[in-house]
Amino acid sequence: MAKKEVNEMSFLDHLEDLRWHLIRIITAVVIVATFAFIFSRFIFNSIIFAPLEMSFPTYDFLCRTATFIGLDTTFCAEEMPMIIQNRTMAGQFSADIWTAILTGFIISFPYTIYQLWKFVSPGLHSNERKHSRGFIIISSLLFFIGVLFGYYIVTPLSLNFLANYSISEIVDNQIDISSYIALVRSSALASGLIFELPIIIYFLTKVGLVTPEILRKYRKYALVVVLVLSAIITPPDIASQVIVAIPILILYQVSIYISKVVIKNQLKKEKQQAKR
User: What is the three-state SS of 158-199?
Assistant: First the structure.
């Protein structure tokens, strides 16, 4: 398709352009997922099932901290009180496939952002397109930090709490593999997407839907939303919710600063154009 100016492209041309970007994204995910499927045994044993071992870094750190303070904690237990089971014929195969796809999405996230940026960048000014590399790096970095936060903080906290929660001694925790993987997946992905908050605020400010004043005005309501989100993605104990809420509140404060910078730059451009 011949390259056209943005203002000359029809709606169907935009759809065709979007279709090819989506095809490239899906292709990248499939390629990475194929390699993840090939090395699935390593991924499951060394990554997915690692939080089941009490030697996991998070448990070790929390155990040492609790011991230093003089508290008795389940983080110092010798083993996790749960057994992972497969209860369906295709359970392990499905777990393998979906874990490979998830791995493909996470690893190819920078390429996904790059393709989406290429789709929207023609509608931006030339000086805004110059910052594309920084946008891709920052958004990818925030996503990966969020995924690591979900994996090393949210997952072990949730897993340890739920594994040790008991309504009766006669009930054993024999967990289906799909349920366990869903916990790891939701913790990692939810955290990764939540950490994209500054990027989302940046674009909302650019289109005029958000201002620093609005963010400051509704900060107390945002605090309630953050606590609700923390309660959703973490076990219902205060310590875990606070641990998750702190970085989200920091991101919210950073988002206010980003919104302020965007508004300041927009006003500066308007003044320069008025002088001309």
Answer: HHHHHHHCCCCCCCCCEEEHHHHHHHHHHHHHHHHHHCCHHH
- Pseudo-torsion of CA 263, 268, 271, 273, nearest 10°? -100
The average confidence (pLDDT) of the chain is 83
Confidence of residue 51 (pLDDT cuts 50, 70, 90): very high
State the helix-helix crossing angle for 155-164 and 238-275, rounded to 10 degrees.
160
Handedness of CA 176, 177, 181, 184 (dihedral sign): positive
How many CB atoms neighbour CB 142 within 10 A? 20
pLDDT in the model for residue 216: 84
User: Using CA atoms, how far apart are residues 62 and 187, in angstroms rounded to an integer?
Assistant: 19
Residue 70 gets the label, from left (phi > 0), alpha (psi -120 to 50) or beta, of left
| Host H or E run for residue 83 | strand 83-85
CA distance 255 to 200: 9
pLDDT tens per residue across span 82-117: 899 998 999 999 999 999 999 999 999 999 998 888
pLDDT of residue 100: 96
Residue 230 to residues 59, 144, 158, Cα–Cα distance (Å): 20, 19, 11
Query: What is the rounded average pLDDT of the residues 156-185?
Result: 88
- Which residues, 6 or more positions from 270, have their beta carbon under 8 angstroms from its beta carbon? none
Rounded CA-CA distance 61/156 in Å is 12
Q: What is the mean pLDDT of residues 191-212?
A: 84
